[in-house]
Amino acid sequence: MPRVVFLLVPRVHLLDVAGPAQVFSTADDLGHPYTLTYVAEEPEVATVQGLVLRTETAWPSLAPDDLIVVPGWRGPTRPASAGTLRRLRDHHASGGTVAGVCAGADALGRAGLLDGRRCTTHHTVQDELARLHPRAEVVKDALYVEDDRIVTSAGVAGGIDAALHLVAARHGPRAAGEAARAMLVHMHRDGTAEQVSPLLRWRSHVDETVHRLQDLIETRFAERLPLRLLAEATGCSERTVTRLFSRATGLTPLAYQTALRLERAGHLLERGATAETAARAVGFEDARALRRLRARPGRTMHSKEASWTQAHP
User: Fold this and answer.
1) pLDDT the model gives residue 157
2) Which sequence spans correspond to the domains of the chain?
3) What's the helix, strand, coil split of the chain in %, to 5?
4) What is the pLDDT of residues 17-62, one digit of tens each?
5) Pairing mode, if any, of strands 144-147 and 150-153?
6) Chain-centre distance for alpha carbon 143
7) Which pLDDT score is estimated for 313?
8) Of 92, 139, 144, 142, which is closest to residue 113 (Cα–Cα)?
9) Are 149 and 97 in contact (CB under 8 A)?
10) What is the CATH class of 198-311?
11) C-beta neighbour count of 246 within 10 angstroms
12) What pLDDT score does 200 carry?
């Protein structure tokens, strides 16, 4: 029976532990056996959220089929002692898999496991991870990355995606899908999915007029929304709509609508829809425009790249 060992450090994030643990526990319930173990250098570990977790201080014997998961934490806590980091290295050297959730990637880096490998972490600390571990290739804005049995994820809910990925790799996509359904996770997101949805990415401004415009576009993103309609909805001129929207978000209204369409189309494709069905569901005339836009690096359209021809072929 494969074992999943969670290495906990002080001020660990509760969901970074609970999310992946729930995935493997659910997989176990569905007939894919796992034993979950929680270890730390002290018998109790306080989470950032205030809950104190009781742990083992003695490590179990590990086999190559076993998995070590290092959940993320908050603050300047050093991840683990030299002896604990050596355990991570030894497990990987013996053929085992080691995963880091969010800041847990730093522990893997301190163990030397990120050198020469691709990895990721939460978007707020990606630059810090790259600074601390310059020999690692930090992939920006990815949900999770696997490179030579080293798995790193964005953290928080991204840890669930990484765990589902590991279940799929070991037991097949159907097993991961069954676990996701049992957990009421709407979908198993691909590792290359953006960490921050367009619904949230451009919402940090304080312009209420633009927020109203975004509400309208989000509600009717599959429709043709000419500037005239947006201007009438806000009582502004078309030129003012474009100026306010671009100043607040860095995008034109059309580019924002296209980003929403691409995100929704991606969800549909991951759930088995054909390109033609997904394209028509989000407002494109056919699959050609969808394929063209999805093939662009980064997939995010900037203001100068958007045209009515692309959005409404």
Assistant:
1) 84
2) 3-182, 198-311
3) 45, 15, 40
4) 999 999 999 999 999 999 999 999 999 999 999 999 999 999 999 9
5) antiparallel
6) 3
7) 27
8) 92
9) yes
10) mainly alpha
11) 16
12) 60
Closest CA to 275 of 293, 257, 258, 260: 293
Element (H, E) at 70: strand 67-70
Residue 41 DSSP one-character state: S
CB atoms within 10 A of CB 128: 14
Which residue bears the tokens 């906990």?
A: 8
Helix (H) or strand (E) holding 89: helix 82-93
Q: Which of 23, 40, 67, 102 is catalytic?
A: 102
Residue 142 near residue 125 (C-beta atoms within 8 A): no
> What pLDDT score was predicted for residue 305?
31
Structure-block tokens of residue 4: 């999943």
Q: How far apart are the first and last CA of the chain?
A: 54
Is residue 50 classed as helix, strand or coil in its secondary structure? coil
Strand, coil or helix: 36: strand
Closest CA to 23 of 147, 161, 171: 161
Tokens representing 146 are 């696997």
119 labelled catalytic: no
| Identity of residue 15 | L
Q: Which CATH number applies to 3-182? A: 3.40.50.880
Strand partners, 99: 69, 151
Sheet harboring 97-101: ordered strands across?
Answer: 35-39, 3-7, 67-70, 97-101, 150-153, 144-147
pLDDT tier for residue 303 given thresholds of 50, 70 and 90: very low
In 3D space, the residue among 153, 160, 187 whose CA is nearest the CA of residue 263 turns out to be 187
pLDDT, tens only, 213-238: 988 998 898 999 999 999 999 999 99
| β-bridge mates for residue 151, sequence order | 99, 146
**Cα(144)–Cα(190) distance, integer angstroms:** 8
Q: How far is Cα 284 from Cα 222, in angstroms, rounded to an integer?
A: 8
